[in-house]
Amino acid sequence: MAAASTPSPLFVPTTPPAKFGPRTGTLTLARPEDGIFLSSDTPALLAATSRGIVPHLSRDHLHLAQAIQHVQLPFESFIDRNPPVPTLVDGSHPLHTFLGYSPDKHVITMTLRDPSDGRKMPPNGNDFVAAHCTRGVRKVTASTWSAYVQKCKPDIVVALSDTPFTPPPHSQKRLTKSIERTIAWLSSILKIPASSTMPDNSTSPRPRHVLLHLAGGTNLQARAEFADRLTDPVDYRDAAELEPLNTLDQGVAGYVFDLLPLRAALAAEAGNPLEEGDLAHGLLRASDRHRSSPESSSRLAELLQSSLEVLPEEKPRVLNSPVSPHEVLRLVRDVGVDIVDSFWAQRAADIGIALDFCFPVPEDDAHDSTTCAPPRKRKDGKSDLGHNLFDSAYVHDHSRLASAFLDGQSAASLGASAAHAVCECGACSPRTPASRILYSAVDTQAWRDRSCATTPSTLQPPSTRAYVHHLLHTHEMSAHALLAMHNISVFSAFLAGIRDAVARGTEHFAREVERFEKVYDEGMVLWSEAEVMWIEVERARGKGRLAREKEKQKESTVGTAVDL
Amino acid sequence: MQFEVVAKCHTTRARVSKMRLAHGTTMLPTFMPVATQAAIKGLTPQQVEALGINLILNNTYHLNLRPGIQVLKEAGGAHKFQGWSHNLLTDSGGFQLVSLSKFTKITEEGALFASPFDGKPTMLTPEESISIQHAIGADIIMQLDDVVSSLTVGPRVEEAMWRTIRWLDRCIEFHQKSGRDDVQNLFAIVQGGLNPDLRDKCLDEMIARRDRVAGYAIGGLSGGEEKDVFWRVIKQCADKLPEDRPRYSMGIGFAEDLLVCVALGVDMADCVFPTRTARFGVALTPTGPLNLRLSKHAIDFRPIEEGCPCPTCANGVSRAILHHNATLETATAHAITQHNLVFQARIMGGARDAIINGTFPDYLKSFFAKYFGDAGYPAWCVNALRSVGVDLLEDRPDVKVISGDGAKWEYSDTA
Question: Which residues on chain A are in Cβ contact (under 8 Å) with B100?
Fold first, then answer.
């Protein structure tokens, strides 16, 4: 089949893109063997997962979440068992099957490390990456990685890269090593061994879409050198196994930038290393303390540009671990990125924040503050990006989560006159279920009543701030399920706003970015406040919910004491 | 409330009935999941409805503390606050006063306790309890009762029983004057500890007030008493309670307890057990609970239960991925919670069908054979069901019968 030898490109820009600058396009994941072609407009959202699943979302919620199409799957949580359990799953989509993603909706990007995990790690070796699982640190070699990928058949795979997670700064020598190893490991995943026949006589093809972290750390020359190495003719000793690739870059479907280690290294160079010490109680993640600024964004843009200078512009660029919408906007504007990790928005749901912002900023402040209060303004006149629902200000606030978006029910009643976009998430636009399980022949009588609204898929009133505030303070997990659905939806609307604005021209987009910067607070004071309250509630309730309940379960009669 | 018995078991005291409340009709017997803080753990109201559940429980004590009555009133009641448009039941708050507060002192006026907010002495009177439950707005509300542990002996048990009756009168009085008694239905709670004489007196007094209460709960059990005593109290109460009122057994949730209670004539039960145990990675199945944290499940790609209609099993969620994430990811707790609630609902739904079809004794037999077959039947279940004409051991001479509580658990890797 032609498709097998020349796979259709993963990414097609709308117009031939400039080297750097905002761009839109279409990502198409083709699985011709199943007749499946999944398309999404770019910049597209890449949902973060933890231990294989989108945090807080049960499978029914996952499938209801329209914003989730691309998921990033760090594999390291599975390496505590050998062989890792997903490698034992049969079928043509083992990861989808095992983790509950739908092959005709979800595109899975498999990567070894969690791009949002900035913890210190032991050094990588010449032939392995140190990865993290519940049983500690495990070494994963390039050949092991290829074997896992072979078995798991992800839609997209990220090649191993040697990103140091030892404390920065990193020496010149270390960066050189990092480049050498990353090149070698890329070559390894692209090679088809001469004896390519597997025991069962099937061939082991090259993974269809390989993404690559662009190495070189915070050193511009090192980054440029790494890019040069990619475009060099392949080593003649490897040529046979890399056939028909003339350069390694030809085997690369797109480029990945992990901002987290770059930000940590930049901070260390500037003499303000990001301390891990105060994260010791284990509730916070290294990235929680990261903030962006115009300066940090321009420094990052410079680094990304130095990598991309010699590389083809029509390949997609993945942005992992941005820490603010401001940072995303600037990197879209100054570099051009096509896939954006939504970890930041999802993490906000963990600490009780309901996002409430949109891009472009609505003209003449279209917030209808009569029914739904917009986020609070800080002293400098800038608005928060959301609401810290732990705050007692929300005890009596019975409005929907975000002022910038209508809930489904209000939108339906306003009809065409609605000025706002609608948040389609399960918290703002819940619907009666499409069906209900019946348990006995007489159960239909239960749902026949006129006194309750039981028509399938009817819009219901949205979850309110007061309700989520209550759930947060009573430590109810439902709070995070509602917030996770909402925040992913708001982040997705943000990216849709970027697409629209970019389509209206580079200058228009740049003006909108400037307006956004003027209106919304980038210092994210709100995050710091929410974090404090979140930790207070966690601590007030003991050492985490499960540990506490475990104790309680031991000492009480099972199931008869009241659930706290 | 409209309450109608639609079918009766020809052998046992089990019955199927239809209970129509302000927020819809619930078919009985049923199990009521507990949403202590106005949420079924981790789920949204729409997810609960999708499970085919339309009657859940909120705890008055907790909702009174948070979010507080003021917030509930602003929202238009607990239904609206939590986005639940179906039936709701609240307890009186009395049980939590005793179980959660060390300083509660019961007086004739009410329960005196230290406020969890500021430590100040606070009084919960029967009138106050009903007033709070009015603000919450549940379809079924419970009288404030004087709760003593089921292990208590001596004069305190009798004192509590008589006080519960006096408090019932005050609750009825207050409820009827409020004008809420056409939309909210007050249940009495039968007390009297494990003493048959006291239970009998309490039943007489409460049945005498039948025209002023919508239903009856059997209280003061599930506190660690012997199961062989437990079922006898349930039977005594269920036998005597009026036919035309629903009977609610409080704090019952193990599958075998549910089925025995149904056979004895109970219509409703509630318990935190299925949702709590889910958070520790235990899934309920017709062959017994499955502790998904055990390493034997690590590479088991079967669903919890083949053919189960719950979203978890129907979606093909494997034991292996549940094992991978049990107690580590909230979404795994959600998945097992959904399954466990469906398991409870299937037990009760199956009972409804069997009662209607005249096959309830067989239903009981096949449940016990599957659930306890290899481990042995709890003697108390055998005794209880014999009392209503079902002999579980009939045709099964080889089955083991074990004394004690007979709950079936696999708690650790070493077990």
Answer: 562, 564
Binding-site annotation: residue ranges of B for substrate: 91-95, 145, 191, 220
Using the beta-carbon criterion (under 8 Å), do A477 and B320 form an inter-chain contact? Answer: no
Q: How many domains does chain A have?
A: 2
Confirm if B173 and B156 have CB atoms less than 8 A apart.
Answer: no
Does B277 contact chain A (CB < 8 Å)?
Answer: yes
Instruction: Specify the 3-state DSSP secondary structure of A141.
Output: strand
B66 interfacial to chain A (CB closer than 8 Å):
yes
Q: Which of A269, A314, A347 is nearest to A50 (CA)?
A: A347
Within 8 A of B275 by CB-CB distance, chain A residues are 563
Flag whether A31 is in a domain.
Answer: no
B104: closest CA of chain A, how far (Å): 16
Among all residues of chain B, which has the CA nearest to that of A560? B251
* Most B-contacting residue of A54, A60, A61, A435 (CB-CB within 10 A), to test interface: A60
Inter-residue contact B265 to B247 (CB < 8 Å): yes
Q: A380: domain range? A: 351-432+454-520
Query: For residue A188, is it within any domain?
Result: yes
Give A198 to chain B, closest Cα distance, Å: 24
Residue A68 and residue A180 in one domain: yes
How far is B81 from B123, CA to CA, in rounded Å? 26
| pLDDT, averaged in runs of 10, over chain A (564 residues) | 56 94 96 90 98 96 96 97 97 96 97 92 95 94 96 97 91 95 97 63 77 96 97 93 95 97 91 64 74 96 98 97 97 98 96 97 65 93 97 97 95 79 96 95 88 80 98 95 98 98 97 98 93 83 48 35 28
Interface touch A445/B18, C-beta < 8 Å: yes
How far the first Cα of chain B sits from its last, in Å, is 48
Residue B408, sorted as left (phi over 0), alpha (psi -120 to 50) or beta, turns out to be beta
Q: Which residues pair with B3 in a beta bridge?
A: B19
Burial of residue A327 (CB within 10 Å: 0-12, 13-18, 19+) is buried
Predicted ipTM of the assembly: 0.96
Residue A318 within any structural domain of the chain: yes
CB contact under 8 A, B276 and A563: yes
User: Which residues fall within 8 angstroms of residue A239, CB to CB, at 6 or more apart?
Assistant: none
CATH T-level topology, domain B2-265: TIM Barrel (3.20.20)
Listed as ranges, residues in chain B with pLDDT below 50 are: 412-415
As a residue count, chain A comes to 564
Q: Do B223 and A560 touch (CB under 8 A)?
A: yes
> 3-state DSSP: chain B helix, strand, coil percent, rounded to 5?
40, 15, 40
User: A335 and A357 in one domain?
Assistant: no
SS3 (DSSP) at A459: strand
If asked whether residues A124 and A245 sit together in one domain, one would say yes
Q: Which of A165, A355, A334 is nearest to A263 (CA)?
A: A165
Is B211 annotated in the active site? no
Task: Specify the pLDDT at position A211.
Answer: 98
Q: Identify from B1, B330, B360 which residue to disrupt to test chain A contact, counting A C-beta atoms within 10 A and taking the largest count.
A: B330
Question: Is B270 an active-site residue?
Answer: yes
Mutate to test the interface with A, among B26, B46, B225, B411 (most CBs of A within 10 A): B46
Write out chain A residues lying below 8 Å of B273, CB-based: 558-560
Q: Does a structural domain hold residue A336? A: yes
Clarify whether residues A321 and A228 are in a common domain.
Answer: yes
Instruction: List pLDDT tens digits, range B11-45.
Output: 999 999 999 999 999 999 999 999 999 999 999 99
The enclosing domain of A162 has a CATH number of 3.20.20.105
For residue A9, say if its preceding peptide bond is cis, omega within 30 degrees of 0. no
Residues A514 and A400 in one domain: yes
B 290-349 residues with CB below 8 A of A?
298-299, 301, 309-312, 315-318, 320-321, 324-325, 327-335, 338, 342, 345-346, 348-349
